[in-house]
Write a structure and sequence with these properties.
This protein is an alpha/beta fold and 556 residues long. Among the domains are: 232 residues, ABC transporter type 1, transmembrane domain (ABC transporter transmembrane region fold); 152 residues, 3-Layer(aba) Sandwich (Rossmann fold), CATH 3.40.50. The protein has 19 helices and 12 strands. The strands form 3 sheets. Strands 6-9-10-3-11-12 form a 6-stranded mixed sheet, sandwiched between helices. A 4-stranded antiparallel sheet has the order 2-1-4-5, covered by helices on one side. Strand 9, helix 16 and strand 10 form a beta-alpha-beta unit. It binds adenosine-5'-triphosphate and magnesium ion. Magnesium ion binds next to helix 10.
């Protein structure tokens, strides 16, 4: 407001300069007028400093807050959401869209506000200076506004599309770089170059369409505004010639018309930018408005378990199918009771639904029907945090994060001491190989645990689960062939892992199955039989076949 006010004040300074300084031909008056001018300029300079600093600060602040808010929201969303919306596409909304917002809030909004003030102030002063001339300008106003609104809308639509295409580019790059070995092993680069060129060109085409609309918007606005000023100078000039107004008045009037014209031009230009920001904001708020697809009490209203968990699990009539596959349920009518402290092996052919059962225990998905009770409490009534606190998970493909080996083991309990970390690593038989890494426990792992073998990753994941020390252990054995030594090391770690807790282990090895108290046989989402190894060999043909063909004997 201060800088806009001073800029408007410069017009009055100009009138005084012309009418009193120049017209009176008095050097004293001229000096006074110029002195006033310098004071105004000084105010304008310091005002501009404050405006630039403060407004840019707001831009950065808003973006940092939005990023945090979106991230805090996303990290709680159900995993199914990220399968439908590619995680990398979402990542691009984080970077590309927040950058657009930052530039808009940090500069465009300030330009828009300042120019809006100048436009309004300029129009007022136009009327005060000369109402007749101002009336002429006002008549032309709708001519300027209508095209601005028309093109502005198109710019916004194209912006949205444009950001979507940019996101495509980002996720395509991300996907290929993370899978670089597969890409290169299959000599897929020529195809990727071609696909990527298409994706980039699509993004370019949309961007070009958007730029064209904006260029039209600016061109039309400038022509109309400057045309109006030309007419004003013509009519006003005639008035000065006929002595109806002073030259200073005309000078001030032209100055204000220019100001109004420039302000209108600037606004029409930044309206395009603002529309672009609206597109980006829409993409971000879409993420914020995504509700978890779970039918359960909100986290803050949900309870916790009444007592410490002993690990008794009762599954009743559990049924679940993945979205779009309702005719082939991944789990159908599962009834299963696992007693506290028991070790239950889950076996079945690939795709039987074993990993899906773990996902439902952790409530990554909403079951279609059926219940899961833990220690007699319906797991759908407790908070997700309390529910997941009951479990330690060793997933089929263990995930490691950017950071040191110790950070990765400490993942489940960030406050664990170094001694605890080493203790867990020793039990999981990970200590030996960690010691041999270049920096021991402080060796940094790349993205997705780059720099470790499959067996080492799995042992690290076991150490992490051990450190988490939850009453129920969910172990999804890797199906990938571990080398014989890692496999026997993991087998040796099993008793320490399973003692004192309920363990559900998806087994691909006969040794694991033999160590279990009971075995559950799954096929095509159905629970076929539960029993001991010997019972099942007698009674269940599928188990007999699996035992003969699929379970890999550990080395002697
Ligand atoms: N995210 C998903 N979306 C849709 N269908 C899925 C998804 N994950 C698994 N499925 C399907 O659900 C079924 C069960 O998969 P699940 O991963 O539970 O098998 P599994 O028993 O763990 O097999 P494996 O021994 O090979 O790990 C399969 O038919 C699979 O194709
Ligand atoms: Mg699986």
């Amino acid at each position: 407001m201060i800088t806009a006010g001073i800029t408007l004040g410069l017009g009055q300074g100009l009138r005084i300069l012309v009418d009193q300084g120049l017209a009176t031909q008095s050097p004293d008056n001229l000096a006074r007028a110029v002195g006033l001018f310098f004071i105004l300029v000084l105010g304008l300079a310091s005002g501009s400093f404050a405006r630039f600093y403060l407004v840019s600060w707001i831009g950065e602040r808003v973006v940092a807050d939005i990023r945090k808010q979106v991230f805090n929201h996303l990290i709680d969303l159900h995993p199914g959401f990220f399968e439908q919306n590619r995680a990398l596409e979402i990542q691009s909304r984080f970077t590309a869209d927040t950058t657009v917002l930052q530039s808009v809030i940090g500069s465009t909004v300030s330009i828009a506000l300042r120019n809006a003030l100048m436009l309004i102030g300029g129009l007022l002063l136009l009327f005060i200076t000369n109402a007749k001339l101002a009336g002429i300008i006002l008549l032309g106003f709708p001519l300027v506004i209508v095209p601005i609104l028309f093109f502005g809308r198109r710019v916004r639509q194209l912006s949205r599309l444009s950001q979507d295409r940019v996101a495509d580019v980002g996720s395509y790059v991300g996907e290929n770089l993370t899978q670089i070995k597969t890409v290169q092993a299959f000599n897929h680069q020529p195809h990727d170059r071609r696909f990527f060129a298409e994706v980039s060109e699509r993004a370019f085409d949309i961007a070009r369409a958007r730029i064209k609309q904006r260029a039209w918007l600016t061109t039309i606005a400038i022509s109309l505004v400057m045309g109006a000023i030309g007419i004003v100078i013509w009519i006003g000039g005639l008035d000065v010639i006929h002595g109806r107004i002073t030259p200073g008045e005309l000078a001030a009037f032209v100055f204000y018309s220019l100001l109004v014209g420039v302000a209108a031009g600037a606004i029409s230009e930044v309206i395009g930018e603002l529309q672009r920001a609206a597109g980006s904001a829409a993409r971000l708020f879409e993420l914020l408005q995504t509700e978890p697809a779970f039918d359960r009490p909100a986290e803050q209203d949900a309870g916790t378990f009444p007592n410490a968990i002993t690990g008794d699990i009762r599954i009743d009539n559990l049924r679940f199918s993945y979205p779009g596959r309702s005719e082939h349920p991944a789990l159908a009518d599962i009834c299963l009771h696992v007693q506290a402290g028991e070790t239950l092996a889950l076996v079945g052919p690939s795709g039987a639904g074993k990993s899906t059962l773990f996902d439902l225990l952790l409530h990554f998905y909403q079951p279609e029907s059926g219940t899961i009770h833990i220690d007699g409490t319906d797991s759908a009534t407790v908070s997700l945090a309390a529910l997941r606190g009951c479990f330690s998970l060793v997933p089929q493909n263990p995930a490691l994060f950017h950071g040191t080996v110790a950070d990765n083991i400490r993942y489940a309990r960030p406050d664990a001491s170094q001694a605890d970390v080493e203790e867990a690593a020793r039990i999981a038989h990970a200590h030996e190989f960690i010691e041999k890494l270049p920096d021991g426990y402080l060796t940094r792992l790349g993205d997705a645990g780059l720099g470790l073998s499959g067996g080492q990753k799995q042992r690290l994941a076991i150490a992490r689960a051990l450190l988490a020390d939850a009453p129920i252990l969910l172990l999804d054995e890797a199906t990938s062939a571990l080398d014989a030594e890692s496999e026997s090391l993991i087998q040796q770690a099993m008793p320490a892992l399973t003692s004192g807790r309920t363990t559900l282990v998806i087994a691909h090895r006969l040794a694991t199955v033999r160590n279990a108290d009971r075995i559950a046989v799954l096929d095509q989402g159905r629970l076929l039989a539960v029993g001991t190894h010997d019972e099942l060999i007698q009674e269940n043909p599928l188990y007999r076949r699996l035992a003969a063909l699929q379970f890999r004997e550990p080395p002697a």
